[in-house]
From TrEMBL:
Protein name according to UniProt: Coenzyme A biosynthesis bifunctional protein CoaBC
CC per GO annotation: phosphopantothenoylcysteine decarboxylase complex
Cofactor list: Mg(2+); FMN
Species: Microbacterium kyungheense
Coverage span on the entire protein: 196 to 434 of 436
Details of cofactor binding: Binds 1 FMN per subunit.
């Protein structure tokens, strides 16, 4: 049999993908985290790499088995990040040379105001409960949009729980407008949906709030649908 190397449809594209959940330290042994496994972000990175892109995966906390797959791919370079601040710094550095940035990471909105260098002890705490002061983290995605170079495509993810504030799509549209993303992938999450599961359901909206893709399937299927949408917006940006 003869194998022919067909260049992928993302060949020549330099891509940065952030994935996983950041962890905000409380003291040397404790942190505030979230349930992101990093699966969807890693699927986005691997789909791009398999389609010919050169990929930097900025990985916050990603499940071990999930990360292993990405770190052995020849077209993927993995950069580790722990906190939201570290993730922001790494993404900014890597974005300098990127054509597309996908923020799939679950970034902590707040960090602990005063991280204790010693393990906090109940002995030194008031009885009955304590209060942790939290301060807001910088919005990495909004910063990328503000500093966007000509020809750069900025993509966000929004995990939403249904309920208050209109439909999922309404909330997604408001978020896309607030952030100024070229594309925003909106997905519904809950305790039984989105996080640990292999499958996902995502609606992708463009800068005008129009639905440009909707896909329910494996996280890889969703990733491929997202890259298809990226190619379409880049085509229209170029014209
Ligand atoms: N994001 C970011 N920096 C932050 C918070 C979020 O870059 N400090 C990115 C996420 O990676 C994601 C997008 O912004 O791509 C949307 O995240 P989300 O948490 O849904 O939006 P928020 O603006 O934080 O709004 P809220 O949590 O109140 O819904
Ligand atoms: Ca948030």
């Amino acid at each position: 049999a003869v194998t022919v190397d067909v260049p992928g449809d993302l060949a020549g594209l330099r891509v940065v993908v952030s994935a996983g959940g950041t962890r905000e330290p409380i003291d040397p042994v404790r942190f505030i985290g979230n349930r992101s496994s990093g699966r969807q972000g890693v699927a986005v990175a691997l789909a791009a790499a398999d389609r010919g892109a050169e990929v930097v995966l900025v990985a916050a906390h990603v499940d071990e088995g999930v990360l292993a797959e990405a770190s052995t791919h020849p077209a993927v370079r993995v950069v580790g990040a722990g906190t939201a601040a570290e993730l922001g710094a790494a993404v900014e550095t890597e974005t300098d040379a990127a054509d597309v940035v996908v923020m799939a990471a679950a970034v902590a909105d707040y960090r602990v105001a005063e991280v204790s260098t010693l393990k906090r002890s109940k002995e030194a705490a008031p009885q009955g409960g304590i209060t942790l002061d939290l301060v807001e983290n910088a919005d990495i995605l909004a910063g990328l949009v503000r500093q966007r170079r000509e020809g750069q495509t900025i993509v966000g993810f929004a995990a939403e729980t249904p309920g208050e504030g209109g439909t999922l799509l309404d909330r997604g549209r408001r978020k896309a407008a607030r952030k100024g993303t070229d594309l925003l992938a909106v997905n519904e999450v809950g305790w039984t949906r989105g996080f640990e599961s292999a499958d996902n359901a995502v609606t992708v909206i463009d800068a005008a709030g129009e639905v440009v893709a909707a896909r329910r399937g494996s996280k890889r299927d969703v990733a491929d649908a997202l890259w298809d949408a990226v190619l379409v917006v880049r085509q229209s940006q170029a014209n």
